[in-house]
Amino acid sequence: MTRTVIRGGLVVTAAEEMHADVLIEGERVVALAAFGTSAAEGWTADREIDARGLYVIPGGVDAHTHMELPFGGTSASDTFETGTRAAAWGGTTTIVDFAVQSVGAALREGLDAWHEKAQGNCAVDYGFHMILADVNESSLKEMDLLVAEGVTSFKLFMAYPGVFYSDDGRILRAMQRGADNGGLIMMHAENGIAIDVLVEQALAEGKTDPRYHGEVRRELLEAEATHRAIKLAQVAGSPLYVVHVSAASAVAELAAARDQGLPVFGETCPQYLFLSTDNLAEPGFEGAKYVCSTPLRPKEHQAALWRGLRTNDLQVVSTDHCPFCFVGQKDLGRGDFSKIPNGLPGVENRMDLLHQAVVDGHITRRRWIEIACATPARMFGLYPRKGTIAPGSDADIVLYDPTATQTISADTHHMNVDYSAYEGKEITGKVRTVLSRGTVVVDGGTYHGRPGHGRFQPRATCQYLDR
Ligand code: DUC
Ligand code: ZN
Ligand code: ZN
Ligand code: ZN
After folding, report:
1. If you write DSSP's letter for every residue of 211-233 in order, what string do you get?
2. For ligand 1, is residue 421 a contact (CB within 6 Å)?
3. Do 352 and 425 touch, CB atoms closer than 8 A?
4. Among the four residues 278, 310, 362, 389, which has the most C-beta atoms within 10 Å?
5. Model ipTM?
6. Which residue numbers delimit the Amidohydrolase-related domain (predicted)?
7. Closest Cα to atom 4, ligand 1: which residue?
8. Ligand 2 centre from 89 Cα, in Å?
9. In the chain, what are the helix, strand and coil shares in percent, each to the nearest 5?
10. How far is the C-alpha of 457 from the C-alpha of 100, rounded, in Å?
11. Does 302 sit in the ligand 1 pocket, CB within 6 Å?
12. Using CA atoms, how far apart are residues 172 and 177, in angstroms rounded to an integer?
C-alpha cells in the first residue's frame, strides 16, 4: 500500500486546529502527529507532500447538487463527469446528488437511472438523496428499501405544482414513514400554489423580466412554507432539513423551532450569502443568470443568514449546483421569466467563497470546515469516513493556500457552463492539492483525476439523531 505523509501544514477540522503531519496508507488516514515530534519524524513514506504554509483540511462535502438534472424543458449542463471534476478542482471530494422519481414511476426506476448516469463517470465520491415526486402506498414502502441500501434522505417539494409538488397530506405521510425508517426529510419550502397565482398575474401585467422571478417568489411564501413544514414534521414526529434557505424570516422560523428543541435543520447556499436581488435586476436579460429557487433576496437578508450560520440555527452550506448555460438554456425564458430554467452553478466555488467569509470575518476557520465538511457528512450519514481528518477516515484531503489570490471567472472555471455567477469576484485563498481516497486528483493547477475514480457511498441515517 502506498504510504504518503503530508508534512508541516496546519490541520484544520471542525473540532481543532493543530500543526500536524498526516500519515496516509492506501485510501485511508492512519495517523496524525504533532509536527516536529519524533513520532512524525520517524514515519517513512513512498511520497512526501510539503504542506508548509498551507491548511490541511478535509475535502468538502457538497450535500446538494443536480448534475444533468432534467428541468424546465432542458437539462442541467454539468454531467456527473464534468461536475465532479469541477468539484475536485474546488476542493470538494464528496457530492450528494438528487435522484428523481418520475410521477407514476417507482423510486427504484429513478434511482437506477441516476446510478446509470453516475457510475463510472465521477471524479470524486458521490451519494444520492431521492426526490419523492409521487408519494403513494408503494413509494412509501420503497423508502424503507432505499434507506437500507444507503439512500437515507428524501426531498419533498412544496413548490412546483405539476412537477415535483406534494400536498400537505402526502408530505405528512412521507414524514411519518421517515420517522419510522430513519430517512431524513429534506424540504423545498416555498408555497408553490400561491406563487403560481402570482406568476400568472405578473405575466398578465406584462412583467416578464428576470427580476419578477424574485418578486413573485415572495419571502412570506418561503417563511409560511417553512413554518408549515416544521409543524407537519412535529405532527409526524419527524426530523426536518430545510434546503436552500434564503429569507431572514425563514431563518427565524427555524430558530424558533430549534429553541423549542425540535430536530429541525437548515441549509443555505453561497448564492444567498454573496448575491442578491441586485443581480436579478441587472440590465437586459443578464438577471436570468441568477434565477434560482428559492430566489435571491434583497441584500439585507444576508446578515440574518450569516448570523444563523454563527448561531447554528443554520448548519450547512451546500451549493444546489444546477447550472444552465446563459446561451441556449437560460434563453428559454426570454420574454417570460417563468420559463427561465431555475438554478445556479457553484460546486467549484463553495470552498473558496466560504474561505473568503473567514477572511471577511463572517465565520471562523473551524466553522468553515464545520458547515462545509463535517456537518454535511454527519447530517447525511457519512461521518467520520468523510468530513474530517482522523485515523480511519478516507484520505479526502485538501491542501489549501490561505494567502494565494484568485479571481473567479468563467474563463478559468471547470464547470460546464458559459458564465460564472461570481464573475470577477476576488478571493483570498486557493486550492493547491486535492486527494480523493489517497489519490492526488488536483495538484498545483494540474488535473490528475479520472472518471470512475469516484465511488458510490452508501450512507447511514442522520447522525444528529439518536435512534
Ligand atoms: N431550485 C433550483 O434553483 N434549481 C433546481 C431545483 C430547485 O429547487
Ligand atoms: Zn429545491
Ligand atoms: Zn436559537
Ligand atoms: Zn436543489
Report:
1. HHHHHHS-HHHHHHHHHHHHHHH
2. no
3. no
4. 389
5. 0.90
6. 55-438
7. 343
8. 25
9. 35, 25, 40
10. 18
11. no
12. 9
Q: Exposure pattern of 263-296 as b/e (b: 16+ CB <10 Å)? A: bbbbbbbbbbbbbbbebbbeeebebbbbbbbbbb
Ligand 1 within 6 A of CB of 246 = no
Q: pLDDT digit of tens for each residue in the chain (467 aa)?
A: 999 999 999 999 999 999 999 999 999 999 999 987 888 888 999 999 999 999 999 999 999 999 999 999 999 999 999 999 999 999 999 999 999 999 999 999 999 999 999 999 999 999 999 999 999 999 999 999 999 999 999 999 999 999 999 999 999 999 999 999 999 999 999 999 999 999 999 999 999 999 999 999 999 999 999 999 999 999 999 999 999 999 999 999 999 999 999 999 999 999 999 999 999 999 999 999 999 999 999 999 999 999 999 999 999 999 999 999 999 999 999 999 999 999 999 999 999 999 999 999 999 999 999 999 999 999 999 999 999 999 999 999 999 999 999 999 999 999 999 999 999 999 999 999 999 999 999 999 999 999 999 999 999 999 998 65
Q: What one-character DSSP code corresponds to residue 375?
A: H
Taking the C-alpha atoms of residue 418 and residue 125, their distance in angstroms, rounded to an integer, is: 25
Q: Which residue has the cell 419523492?
A: 132
Q: How far is the CA of 117 from the centre of ligand 2 (A)?
A: 21
Pocket lining: 187 vs ligand 1, CB cutoff 6 Å: no
Which of 66, 166, 324, 347 has the most ligand 1 atoms within 8 A of CB, as the residue to mutate? 66
Q: Is 297 in the pocket of ligand 1 (CB under 6 A)?
A: no
* E strand map for 216-366: 240-242, 264-268, 316-317
The C-alpha cell that represents 239 in the structure block? 426530523
Q: Could you say which ligand is closest to the alpha carbon of residue 344?
A: 1
- Minimum-distance ligand 1 atom for the alpha carbon of 344: 3
| Residues in the chain, total | 467
Nearest residue to 375 via CA among 250, 463, 444, 270: 463
Kindly give the distance from the C-alpha atom of residue 3 to the centroid of ligand 1, in angstroms, as a whole number. Answer: 42
CA of 72 to the centre of ligand 1 (A): 10
Residue 266 CA to ligand 3 centre (angstroms): 12
User: pTM score, two decimals?
Assistant: 0.98
Residue type, 464: Y
Q: How wide is the angle at C-alpha 64 spanned by C-alphas 59 and 68, nearest 5°?
A: 105
